[in-house]
Design a protein that fits this description.
- By secondary structure, this protein is an alpha+beta fold.
- The chain has four domains: 2-125, Sandwich (Immunoglobulin-like), CATH 2.60.40.60; 133-236, Immunoglobulin-like (Sandwich); 244-345, Immunoglobulin-like (Sandwich), CATH 2.60.40; 377-407.
- 15% of the residues lie in helices and 37% in strands.
- It has one helix spanning 344-404, and strands at 2-3, 8-12, 19-22, 25-28, 34-35, 47-51, 60-65, 77-79, 85-88, 99-108, 118-125, 133-134, 137-143, 151-154, 157-158, 171-178, 184-186, 191-194, 208-216, 226-236, 244-245, 249-253, 258-264, 276-280, 288-292, 297-302, 309-318, 329-336.
- The strands form eight sheets. A four-stranded antiparallel sheet has the order 2-6-9-8, with no helix packed on it.
- It is rod-shaped, with a radius of gyration of 53 Å.
- The model is unreliable at 12-30, 347-356 and 399-407 (pLDDT under 50).
- The chain crosses the membrane at residues 355-371.
- This is Cadherin domain-containing protein.
- One of its GO terms (cellular component) is plasma membrane.
- Residues 51-134, 134-245 form the Cadherin domain.
- Keywords: Calcium, Cell adhesion, Cell junction, Cell membrane, Glycoprotein, Membrane, Metal-binding, Repeat, Signal, Transmembrane, Transmembrane helix.
Length: 407
């Protein structure tokens, strides 16, 4: 309890507020807390001041001083100068002002103080009238290949309700993520974690995820206010891909001296070109030299006359960080004699395609000829058989006729 001037009492009309007068001494219980968003304006009074020097005929004048009375914001609380009834003229907003410290003044009509001034503190009780707010787009980063459970970032939302109160205690969760690989999860306290293994920038063909997150006050319990925000997570490249040749077969005319080899790397800068091409002498057939052409290509030059045939060349191809595949890169070069500028493989393909219809035509013609010859032979054989039969019958007939004739 707060000791008040012996002759002054304040009656507060809510809850546990009370005033006790014992042997002309008045005591003030700390004032009642008033709820924000509650309309007290229609009530006759929320508190009452009374001095024992007040004879009931208006000899004492009551007044209030301080913010919310005679200071900005003006006249939120007013007092009846004769009755001492304190009223509220506006609906209170805790976020605008969470408490009021008023000074109670009692004077005689001539302006002299009847009692010493004392303070009346009115605290405004928070109502859950604000939703969580996410500021702009929050961004985090994580390395590709990070293990499950890796903490990426913490998302923070604000709630203008009273700090330390359930009304401002926010629980978080993810409601959508794009691409929909379900790679991340969110703790109730706002931490975003890697949920699944296989966070691969190259395989999933994305280097950024966009998450929509929701915050709900009352610590996520039903009835809480909600707000949503956007989070972007950038996937940082790890040098987990080595440079590889784009093709393992080349053709070269005996009159040429070089072929161009190209390599590629799926990683991003700085884990990619420029590439360094180096020939491995062991296992390489023929004498070759490699010279860079640009960041991703090199010229493979023959250092001696090359006979027609197949030559295997082994490479080590390193990226900008000096990383290479565990096994050497191999390329086969077919050297051949080129006619009219037609390269080996193209010439073979060209000849094959040219001979195809002609060969088929010749085969068909041959078959037709064979069939015709076969038919002719059958006809001749039939004719011969018929002629032989006719000759035999003629001979027999003549012999019979000769035997019947007279001598």
């Amino acid at each position: 309890m707060t000791r008040v001037s012996p002759a002054v009492c304040v009656w507060l009309l809510f809850g546990l507020q009370a005033v006790a007068a014992v042997k002309a001494h008045c005591f003030l219980v700390p004032p009642k807390k008033l709820m924000e968003n509650v309309d007290y304006t229609k009530q006759e009074h929320v508190a009452r001041i009374h001095s024992d020097f007040d004879d009931g005929n208006g000899n004492i004048v009551y007044s209030l001083e301080g913010k919310g009375a005679n200071q900005n914001p003006f006249n939120v609380f007013v007092v009846n100068p004769r009755s001492g009834h304190i009223r509220v003229t506006k609906i209170l907003d805790r976020e605008f002002m969470d408490s009021y410290m008023l000074t109670i003044v009692t004077r005689y009509k001539n302006g002299s103080l009847a009692e010493s001034n004392f303070d009346l503190r009115v605290q405004v009780v928070d109502d859950n009238d604000n939703s969580p707010v996410f500021q702009d787009i929050q961004t985090g980063v994580v390395n590709e290949g990070s293990p499950v459970g890796t903490t990426v970032m913490r998302v923070i939302a604000t709630d203008d309700d009273e700090r330390g109160n359930r009304n401002s205690q926010i629980a978080y969760h993810i409601i959508d993520q794009t691409p929909a690989h379900d790679m991340f999860e969110m703790s109730k306290s706002g931490y975003i974690l890697v949920k699944n293994s296989g966070l691969d920038r190259e395989f999933q063909k994305t280097d950024q995820y966009v998450l929509t997150v929701r915050g709900q006050d009352l610590n996520g319990e039903p009835g809480g206010n909600t707000g949503t925000g956007t989070v972007t997570i950038d996937i940082l490249d790890v040098n987990d891909n080595c440079p590889v040749l784009t093709t393992d077969f080349h053709t070269m005319c005996t009159t040429d001296v070089s072929v161009i080899v190209n390599a590629e790397d799926k990683d991003s800068y700085p884990n990619r070109p420029p590439f360094d091409f180096v020939i491995i002498p062991e296992g390489t057939q023929g004498k070759w030299q490699v010279n860079p052409l640009n960041d991703t290509a090199a010229s493979l030059n023959a250092q001696e006359s090359m006979w027609p045939g197949f030559y295997e060349v082994k490479f080590v191809v390193r990226d900008k960080q000096g990383e290479a595949c565990p096994d050497p890169q191999k390329v086969t070069v077919e050297v051949c004699t080129c006619v009219d500028g037609v390269v080996c493989g193209k010439r073979a393909t060209s000849k094959k395609s040219e001979f195809g219809p002609l060969g088929i035509g010749l085969l068909v013609l041959g078959l037709l000829l064979l069939l015709r010859k076969y038919d002719v032979m059958l006809i001749l054989m039939k004719w011969a058989k018929t002629f032989y039969t006719f000759a035999v019958l003629t001979t027999i007939t003549r012999q019979v006729e000769f035997s019947r004739s007279p001598v």
